[in-house]
Amino acid sequence: MTEKISRASRETAVASGSAAAAAAPVILSNERGSFAWGVLAKRHPALIQQVRDAFPYGRRQHEALDALLDESSNGVVEPLAPEEPDHGRWADWGRGHFGRSWYDAPFLWAESYFYRRLLAAVGYFGTGPWQGVDPFAPFKQAELRGEAVEEELRALDALADAPAGERATALLHASLWGNRADLGFRASGESPAGEVATSALVADDSAALWQLLPAGASATVAVVADNAGRELIPDLILIDHLLEHRHAERVVLHVKPYPYYVSDAMTADVVDCLRRLTEAPGEAGRIGGRLWKGMAAGSLEVRTHSFFCAPLPYEEMPEDLRKEFAGVTLTILKGDLNYRRLVGDRLWDATTSFAELTAYFPGPVAALRTLKSDVIAGLQQGTLDDLERSGAAWRTSGTHALIQVRK
């Protein structure tokens, strides 16, 4: 299903993508019962309560959380307080949205702004005692200590002596599916779980991904992480495979600079996951040890950038980040949010060319994504017809996934 696009034709593809965008409306949250509406109306209020319960916050934090709950549920969008360090940037990004209902703002912007306002409410960027305290840390840590992670790490032992190709497929699927505990690290096609992993792919360009990363090449791979915990551990294990089997000479792992979208990975989460691996017995511990040494040697580097917490598509990435991605062999974008930012958070016709929508990206790019929102592109018509006939909420339920590559 790989869609190829040469450098010479990229300009034409960008123009085609722009034309497609004109016919694809930006996703809003004002349609009652829609997925986007449910996030703002149900998920965000529940998250405020979970954060409130997770910490012994003082009166100021509780009052600020109450105000955010009331505003985001019933009021209009208010600007970030002037004392917040990035007030100016958000004032610019939010121009045209302030003073309007949260539900009438673009879904991507409203989600991003909600999380930024949540950090303001708990004093994350303030000068008080809650400065720098991740409000989502208890959720991440509980997941990392859970029995599901233990089982998945034990499953690595059975895969240690598998042929390289079989191991590569299993670890790619584990990274793709992230926190699907029923899949773990089992090899594709070797078990019922593996068969589910393959049949639930709505697009599979994995062959093109491995073609870009042949063993023995001096490749540099950028991996833009999504979630911490049970999703970041499979990402790290896949990175170890790339380095150990010489699919990459160097991997740069990009993470968020501050807490974002509940479970998004930061540097502290990378360290927590590496410690979890190194403390495990068997193959997991060996992988953790190699990655720990790789950090010191420079074969694995962790970086971050403020753009990763911006409510903007990758098409608007700053020049320094563009140069970073232009200088690597392949950029792998993990997760649903990165996909939305890669192709644009719009109601595309699902058969719109993935290659054309990503033609602006400054180098080869791969998307590994479990479907958890309405955005989708690059499907074959027959695949789309089968999915639509199924009657399932395949776009948003997390039951389907994709691997899409633009060379």
UniProtKB/TrEMBL annotation:
Keywords: Hydrolase, Manganese, Metal-binding
Pfam families: ARMT1-like_dom
Superkingdom in the source lineage: Bacteria
InterPro entries documented for this protein: ARMT-1-like_metal-bd_sf, ARMT1, ARMT1-like_metal-bd
Cofactor dependence: Mn(2+)
Family: Belongs to the damage-control phosphatase family. Sugar phosphate phosphatase III subfamily.
Protein name: Damage-control phosphatase ARMT1 family protein
Native source organism of the sequence: Streptomyces chengmaiensis
